[in-house]
Amino acid sequence: MNRLPILLLVTLPLAAQQAAPPASWKALKFPALKEIQIPKIEETTLPNGMKIYLLENHELPLVRGTALIRTGNLFDPADKVGLASITGEVIRSGGTASKTGDQLDEQLENIAASVESSIEESYGRVAFSTLKERTDEVLGVFHDVITAPAFRQDKIDLSKSQIASGIQRRNDDAHGIAQREFTDLVYGKNTPYGWQIEYATLDNIKRDDIVNFYKRYYFPGNIILAVQGDFSAAEMKAKLEALFGTWNYQQPPVPPFPKVDSQPKPGIYVATKTDVTQSNFAMGQLGGEQSDKDYPALDVMGDILGGSFESRLFVKVRTKLGYAYEIRAGWDADFDHPGLFQISGSTKSPSTAATLKAVEEEVRRIRTEPVTAAELETAKQTVLNGFIFNFDTRAKTLNRLLTYRYYGYPDDFIFQYQKAVANVTTADILRVAKQYIDPDKFVIVAAGNPKDFGTPLSSLGLPVSDIDLTIPEPKKPAAAAVSPATIAQGRALLAKARDAMGGAEKIAAVKDITQSGAVQTPNGLKVTQTEQWIAPRYFRQDDVLPFGKIATYSDGTMGWEVTPQGAGPLPPAEAQQIGFESFRMWFPLMLSERDPDRVVSAEGDGKIRISDKSGHDVLLTLDAKTGLPASETYSRPGDPQGPLEEVYSDWRETNGVKLPWKVAMMQAGHPVAEITVTDVKFNQGLTPEQISKKP
Known about the structure:
This protein is of the alpha+beta class. It folds into three domains: 42-171 and 192-244, CATH 3.30.830.10; 267-394 and 402-466, Cytochrome Bc1 Complex, Chain A, domain 1 (2-Layer Sandwich); 484-691, Lipoprotein localisation LolA/LolB/LppX (outer membrane lipoprotein receptor (LolB), chain A, Clam). 34% of the residues lie in helices and 26% in strands. Strands 18-17-16-15-14-13-25-24-23-22-21-20-19 form a 13-stranded antiparallel beta sheet, with helices on one face. Strand 13 (512-520) and strand 14 form a beta hairpin.
């Protein structure tokens, strides 16, 4: 039977329907947002002073809790900045009296649970999450972490090492530099709000400091605990009373946090970073608190100026002028101290001055011209619709209420805020803009390469200052005393090692080397590596990693690097490290007594310390039987994680010179990497022109 006519009858109407033009997005109708509902919360205070808030939520078989502790890094001593952050981390990572942090990790991972801790600027936090059926077990861990942390030294060392790595890398990102320096300048670098962790303050932090910090702030009367999830409030109250009711440790009331009392000097501050093609900027002044009566109007004003794709700054600076891909502005108020009014973004280096000028014009315009009714309504809806997401689940609602209680805000603050935003007028926007923001008092930070700015920033009519981004070096262990006797002994030991490797004549004859090998780390990362060196200072390294290739070159003064993200000048920190690698290259190192800038000195039995005027320093330990170097210990420039030790083995001869073909790298007693050499070639006639070609 021929069914074609029937199919046509069926498909033609569908095709006609699909061809109908879609309705305009302007015709779409959306229901009004649901009103925020504050659920009933069970409250109790234990005899020891701990406040507890409970919220039943039977949607999922989960239980979650958060304890807030009135503390913060604002209480750091000036000479031990970083103390609170380390304490907050090691409360959990350092384990408890009965289990190490690693054992807790394994226990919690096996039951899909978590217990985490931290200390931020103005609060400490310990939180847990668990499936309902594991509640008792996880509450036990949560209790032990809060009341009896062990602060094991290995986790303190690990935390300090990780923070030190962050110090080392803090100038890598221009955006991060602009944000950090703007914040520090506005609040004042001599206040807790503007401090930053340095190697020196980190080195001052000892375990006793951490224990004492914990004891001062972690006591029941200084803690509020909120728990929400699938439980009976009465039963959960009984569990918490049984767990924490006998914890009767007390301390004097915690003092208020330091006041913000800053009068920053207006002007333009330049953070020079030569390895970028864009400028990142941050500009503005002190803001206010969320409890301020004008906060709702200021919040709306910030959105009109730079809070969305329809904001004035976005339309002018990005869309019309094409200066910036991103730009934002906002009146960022804090709960308990003035926040920051900040405008931030990035632009091509040559348009830095023009971008800052365009931003200034928009700031002055919002202070002198009323905004339109359409701008006002859009911003009000954006602010209200965005804030609602703080309350779109019962868990978020409880956390927000916990925050209000912690900072002393009324429970109905959200309703006060909503009503105030709804009542903001165009006159209010003009009034608060005139009253609270003043571009003549702005602090402006630009992180980029001033040589590429085109128009100098001084053309903007503000004083221009340079920001010192120097990172103070970590303190080095004191070297042994050097005397004519130790120098003579050191040179004799070096000659012994040199003879074992092939003799001074053959070592001095090496003018270039190409060495290939493989690097493997304990976590399984494998790298194929080729190094090329030309006397006295030209160096190139090519690495093949799982995620791509990296090539680095230096002529001893400057150089370049090529990564999967692109090519650019060699960052100063890497240039410094390559300079150190050239210093400890075998051939000049073994002839160090011939270099007037180097000092060779014996330091203990079979040990030779070699250093130079640039601060480079290595300690060679010789094998008593062979005379060959058994190991080398050194601290790389800018590496805060402590000295590295290279242990040498599998010595092989190439053109009469012996080199190790196996190198085990250790740091703080732990393996870092193992290097296996696969090929060595000497004196191939390499030239700087050859090895400086980019891939």
